[in-house]
Amino acid sequence: MKLLLTTLKHTRNPAVYLCRRCCSSPRSSGGLSSLQDEVMVGSSLELVRTVGSQVEVRPGFITEEEEAVLLQELEPGLRKKRYEFDHWDDAIHGYRETERLRWAPPCEEILNRVRSVAFPGGAPLLGPVHVLDLDKAGYIKPHVDSVKFCGSTIAGLSLLSDSIMRLVKENEPNEWLDLLLARRSLYILRDQARYDFTHEILKDEDSVFNGHRVARQRRISVICRNLPG
């Protein structure tokens, strides 16, 4: 699906581009048009340089065929669940979720590629893979994942939709990064970006990247985490 881009007025202070073509793979990125090189913007160049070094976005990490393989595995179980609009810690609105420990071999091959990129050196991983299905009207509120449940790194595949992830420094709301998570991309958050910044997935009506509208659809994320240290 092509990403529709409509020029809008900036809703935040002027941003600084950080262009990352760290994925030299020929895999499709979902049709990002003129924004295909721009995966991160931030409130200051210093923030982009410091915290940006702990954030990675790889557009086109999986192919359309690989996305279809993952969806074929996930959809039967997800369809049995209803979207929920109350979360136990009030962090998510309009979602359904599951955890999977066992995957079909083609899916396991994809996940092993995620693990090799995000967790080099064989770091011990949290066993089940977290699958989060956001309704088109759903969103993830600003939060910091508890260190009791996961370690210093989180890596997620984005299926079905483009979206914007926003990181905001705790107690300093003027320091922020926006990440353009294209459909079929991989994002990785490490260390300070995990612990000192809230992260959220913006509502469809708020989904703007550096002045450009990024339409949100239903979105499934497949998330791997390492164990607490």
TrEMBL record:
<keyword id="KW-0479">Metal-binding</keyword>
<dbReference type="InterPro" id="IPR037151">
    <property type="entry name" value="AlkB-like_sf"/>
</dbReference>
<comment type="similarity">
    <text>Belongs to the alkB family.</text>
</comment>
<dbReference type="InterPro" id="IPR032870">
    <property type="entry name" value="ALKBH7-like"/>
</dbReference>
<keyword id="KW-0809">Transit peptide</keyword>
<dbReference type="GO" id="GO:0005759">
    <property type="term" value="C:mitochondrial matrix"/>
</dbReference>
<keyword id="KW-0223">Dioxygenase</keyword>
<keyword id="KW-1210">Necrosis</keyword>
<protein>
    <recommendedName>
        <fullName>Alpha-ketoglutarate-dependent dioxygenase alkB homolog 7, mitochondrial</fullName>
    </recommendedName>
</protein>
<dbReference type="GO" id="GO:0046872">
    <property type="term" value="F:metal ion binding"/>
</dbReference>
<dbReference type="GO" id="GO:0012501">
    <property type="term" value="P:programmed cell death"/>
</dbReference>
<keyword id="KW-0496">Mitochondrion</keyword>
<dbReference type="GO" id="GO:0051213">
    <property type="term" value="F:dioxygenase activity"/>
</dbReference>
<keyword id="KW-0408">Iron</keyword>
<comment type="function">
    <text>Required to induce programmed necrosis in response to DNA damage caused by cytotoxic alkylating agents. Acts by triggering the collapse of mitochondrial membrane potential and loss of mitochondrial function that leads to energy depletion and cell death. ALKBH7-mediated necrosis is probably required to prevent the accumulation of cells with DNA damage. Does not display DNA demethylase activity. Involved in fatty acid metabolism.</text>
</comment>
<dbReference type="GO" id="GO:0006631">
    <property type="term" value="P:fatty acid metabolic process"/>
</dbReference>
<dbReference type="GO" id="GO:0006974">
    <property type="term" value="P:DNA damage response"/>
</dbReference>
<keyword id="KW-0560">Oxidoreductase</keyword>
